[in-house]
Amino acid sequence: MQHHYHKPHPSITSYVRTVLIVEGSAETGTSKQPLFTNGMPALVCRTEKDRAGNEHVIQLTLFAKSTPSGSWLAEENTIIIAYFFKPFSMAAMFNIPVNKLMAAPIDLSCWNPHKTNALKVQLMCASTTTAKVDVLDNLLIHLLQLNKRECEIIKYSTDEMMCNPGAEILSVLLNKLNINERSFQRLFKKYVGITPNQYRRICQFQLSFTQLRGNDFNKLTDVAFDNGFADQSHFIRSFKEFTQITPQEYLRSGLKEKDQ
Fold first, then answer.
1. In whole angstroms, what is the distance from residue 221 CA to residue 131 CA?
2. 246 in helix, strand or coil?
3. Which of 130, 146, 162 is the last residue of a domain?
4. What does DSSP assign to residue 233?
5. What is the per-residue pLDDT for 259?
6. Contacts of 77 (CB under 8 A, 6+ apart)
7. Can you give the pLDDT at residue 31?
8. Which H/E stretch holds residue 82?
9. What is the rounded CA–CA span in Å between residue 27 and residue 30?
10. Are residues 17 and 138 in the same domain?
């Protein structure tokens, strides 16, 4: 078994992290499985040739959680192509509610039988691995064009809130995206799984926790204001909500606070 990573097509690099290609080999000593981060959403395509040399598409599956390790076992004449997506991208691109994706892997035949049948024919007619990658690239490019507005809204808003999680970011996003609050709430909940404000608060806590853990502050009010909290009291309440302890208790447990 041999494997390598392939750069995504330029048109989808904002939504796809990398492409993994695994090819079965008759050579010995090449059975080591590829390394990748668990929990990365993925589209996995698996094809096999029978003894007569005819190609068959064995698998076309979306995994919102970790892909089972057995998916990477490749016998001779087996080709596995996996697209690993960036956070929140796969649901919007395939127009599938994230809660449905998280519930169980989804076979593309259940997602869209007509598109999947056409895709299988193209994959079986593609004589090389490169040609198969082109077929899958074209599918994702087509889906991105169909759902471009939704994909852009989710990508832009999640990226912005990760960097600027203050409460004012929500109204800023509505203006920049030219979308009303009700539509934004609906799209965000569908493709991310929580409300925009819940996601913003998670980002806000994560940034403040990283600063606190890194001891990158002179006093706790610095952490509060650096991360968009209205005041130190709001920061303490939020920290306790997510961790069940106060910032001071966290510092006493493992870090030395510089200045109260």
1. 57
2. coil
3. 146
4. H
5. 45
6. 24, 48, 49
7. 52
8. strand 78-85
9. 7
10. yes
Q: Residue 239's closest CA among 226, 228, 250?
A: 250
- pTM, two decimal places: 0.87
Written as one string, the DSSP assignment of 103-168 is HS-EEHHHH-HHHHHHHHHHHHH--SHHHHHHHHHHHHHHHHHHTHHHHHHHHHHHHHHHH--STT
Residue 97, both tokens: 């509610």
- Judged against a pLDDT cut of 70, whether residue 179 lies above it is answered with yes
Question: 234 and 163 in one domain?
Answer: yes
**Number of domains the chain contains:** 2
Q: Kindly report, residue by residue over 211-235, the tens digit of the pLDDT.
A: 998 888 888 899 999 999 988 999 9
Range from 67-76, 191-200, 207-216, 229-238 carrying the lowest mean pLDDT: 67-76
Number of residues that this document lists for the chain: 260
Distance (Å, whole) CA 53 – CA 126: 13
